[in-house]
Amino acid sequence: MVASATEGVKISAAGLPMVAPPGGEPEIYSDRWELLWSAGVGKGQRWDCAAPSPSLVDLLKSGKVDAKGKRVFVPGCGRGYDLPVFRSAGASQVVGLELAPSAVREAQAHLQELGLPEADAAAIEMLSGDFFRWSSPQGPFDLGFDYTFGCAMHPSMRADWASTWAKSIKPGGTLVTLVFPINPDADPNVGPPFPISPALFRTLLEPAGFEVVSEAPVPAELSHPPRVGKEVLMVWRRK
Question: How many CB atoms lie within 10 A of CB 21?
Answer without folding.
Answer: 10
